[in-house]
TrEMBL record:
It holds the Pfam family peroxidase. The keyword NADP does not apply. Substrate binds at residue 159. The record marks 57 as: Transition state stabilizer. It comes from Artemisia annua. This is Peroxidase.
Amino acid sequence: MKGYCSILVILAILGLVQGDLKLGFYKSSCPKAEKIVQEYVNQHIPNAPSLAAALIRMNFHDCFVRGCDASILLNFTSASGNQTEKVAIPNQTVRGFGFIDAIKSLVEAACPGVVSCADIIALATRDSIVATGGPYWKVPTGRRDGLISNASEALAQIPAPFDNITSLIQKFAIKTLDLKDLVLLSGAHTIGIAHCPSFSNRLYNFTGVGDRDPSLDSEYADNLQSRKCRTPNDNTTKVEMDPGSRKTFDLSYYSLLLKRRGLFESDSALTRNSNTLTYINQLLQGSLQNFFSEFALSMEKMNEIEVKTGTSGEIRRNCAVVN
Ligand code: HEM
Ligand SMILES: *[C@@H]1O[C@H](CO)[C@@H](O)[C@H](O)[C@H]1NC(C)=O
Ligand SMILES: *[C@@H]1O[C@H](CO)[C@@H](O)[C@H](O)[C@H]1NC(C)=O
Ligand SMILES: *[C@@H]1O[C@H](CO)[C@@H](O)[C@H](O)[C@H]1NC(C)=O
Ligand SMILES: *[C@@H]1O[C@H](CO)[C@@H](O)[C@H](O)[C@H]1NC(C)=O
Ligand SMILES: *[C@@H]1O[C@H](CO)[C@@H](O)[C@H](O)[C@H]1NC(C)=O
Ligand SMILES: *[C@@H]1O[C@H](CO)[C@@H](O)[C@H](O)[C@H]1NC(C)=O
Ligand SMILES: CC(=O)N[C@H]1CO[C@H](CO)[C@@H](O)[C@@H]1O
């Protein structure tokens, strides 16, 4: 019993030394940090609610490449030059960099060199989703910022809208996320917008013979083609992923999936695997509160992917460049 206890004590100490994430990590080193983030979000998100969608997507893309380490914010590193994650195709439509930089400046003014950019992404994302009426999840802190950012890794590891269910499951599994997490986190597509190139192959040239994706509802496809993506190479028009409800974090994304109105192939793919389909049906049969609490658990898992803690990485002073 005694030996067992000391093993636990040693494990606990190791945990501290490795500096695992914990709630209120900055409680003594920068007591105002979380408050500064929250106040900035509450002050600005009501005027720019679409940024909540941009931020949660940034949070996802950051965590999927080298862990949640703010590598997505880097403009330049000595190894990659300017070929950082930001310039990779999936990042070309990520927004919200200025918002994170503004929060970082306020936090730096209060406590220089203490709070990581990675934690700011995680906190600002959660607070902005809450500020727009979405779910709340816990954000333990103590992440450190990475030194590497590589465009080709982002291209390989961030799921593409053209991915089939097998690839989606694999790309999530590599990041320790399971099928349930895949269904829940895809539910973030209940808010926000996409650009035509993410899906217009489904309207114009699905298999290379000028055809449509037969799994897309034809009335919806007609609408997209006549009102939104009017030409095959339109790359500027924005389209809501959850039409009529893109500002509300709700279950309608999942209802649309069952109506064959998921916008991306990757959305639609979730209905063609019996396990993911079961989760979709369960979510639709449950309450909004249930979706919120399940979504929160998956976000908490995502925000722990390959985090750097303790002495690895650094606390970046400017989120766009390594110190
Ligand atoms: C399952 C794999 C996923 C794929 C293939 C995917 C793909 C995409 C694509 C292609 C866009 C639109 C980009 C554009 O055309 O502008 C998009 C937007 C978005 N994604 Fe995902 N996504 C996935 C998962 C996620 C996850 C896990 C989250 C967050 C938890 C997320 C949140 C969002 C949000 C909020 C937007 C709208 C962004 C905005 O309004 O600026 N997505 N996603
Ligand atoms: C980083 O790049 C962004 C554009 O992606 C730019 O707005 C910002 O000023 C740059 N920051 C630095 C420090 O170079
Ligand atoms: C970026 O990652 C790719 C794929 O892992 C690798 O081949 C390449 O050498 C990396 N580039 C740099 C500059 O590290
Ligand atoms: C990226 O770096 C290359 C060479 O280092 C330079 O020629 C190019 O202008 C840079 N591109 C941007 C967008 O800064
Ligand atoms: C899914 O996509 C991968 C990668 O593009 C491909 O190798 C695989 O054959 C596809 N699987 C199915 C079932 O279509
Ligand atoms: C469809 O794609 C094929 C193969 O990439 C291409 O040869 C053809 O020109 C495209 N057709 C249209 C109508 O864009
Ligand atoms: C969008 O399309 C225009 C015209 O076809 C082209 O000049 C531009 O480079 C495209 N932009 C992107 C980001 O692909
Ligand atoms: C926000 C951001 O840095 N976007 C970049 C994504 O990549 C394109 C193409 O390389 C750049 O022009 C954007 O500035």
